[in-house]
Design goal:
By secondary structure, the chain is α/β, with parallel strands linked by helices. The protein folds into two domains: 44-62 and 83-238, P-loop containing nucleotide triphosphate hydrolases (Rossmann fold, 3-Layer(aba) Sandwich); 242-321, Alpha-Beta Plaits. It has twelve helices and 14 strands. The strands form three sheets. A six-stranded mixed beta sheet has the order 6-7-8-3-9-10, with helices on both faces. A hairpin with a 2-residue loop joins strand 4 and strand 5. Helix 4 (110-120) packs across helix 5 (125-139) and helix 5 packs across helix 6. The longest helix is centred in the middle third of the chain and has 15 residues, at 125-139.
Amino acid sequence: MPAIIIENLSKTFPPSFPRLKRAFRLKVDPPVEALKNVSLEVGDGEIFGLIGRNGAGKTTLTKIIATLVQPTSGSVTVREFDSIRDEVKVRSQIGLATAEERSFYWRLSCHKNMMFFARLYGLRDKEAKRRISEIFERVGLTPLADRRFSDISTGNKQKLAIARALLANPPVLLLDEPTRSLDPLAAADMRDLISSLEGVSILLTSHNLSEIEQLCKRVAVISKGEIKTMDTPDRLRHKHAQIQNVTISVQGLTESDIATTVKDLLSAHKIEHAHETITVSFERHADDDILTKVIGRLSERGGKVVNVETQMPTLLDVLESYE
């Protein structure tokens, strides 16, 4: 059984205080449709990536799975428990870490904060202290255990949110931008930690697309509340492989000669001149021989092609194609 099953999930946020605004003849904003018929599954032990622009619906989806927000329609099942009928059981299965964490007590130390949440999870003090010590060591918070939450950096606050998500050793993790605010070395350590969690099912949202490629077996692209495509990172790139960025370096021709030679072959091109080398960048479709034609014409005009570089599509290209 998949760890998370989402079927035809939709969420519409109604306008705030519509009657009051109408009474004062103020503009009433229309309802916001944050999610539209979203369906996906996260396999047992899988790290599943969700990418999209700000406002695409990633955080709303995460909060619905965590039972913090109820859907307008559709269903969410976490390890066979329904998120509405069995919300207490669902919460016991999930560790949640969001990008903007506001539920810690700012005057308490990091350790005391964790002890508070450990008791909410039902952990005995001895077990809680052992578990906290182990997690702090893994996320690099041991030197800061006795520091007040208000006194630690934003990056370390993010680490503490991850530590709390791991506290009860849940089988499912919802990680909303887990490396946000972390420095490059700390982010690399966090990725290593995430990839080392054996048997844990993880839904990971991030704006760091290289991070998604490194960690996730499958990726879904969400835009304006809808899942646009879903597959492995490699397959997503190959689906868009018909569009490639090709750079040709040519010597022996002026920039105007290059433009005249290729303008009727290329629908869009960018020409740059540097150190006696002309670079032409354009989009090439895999089902035609446009590249061969361009090189042939440049040679006919007396140009010497010294280098051809083809850049394969990235997840950013995939994401932008659905905007």
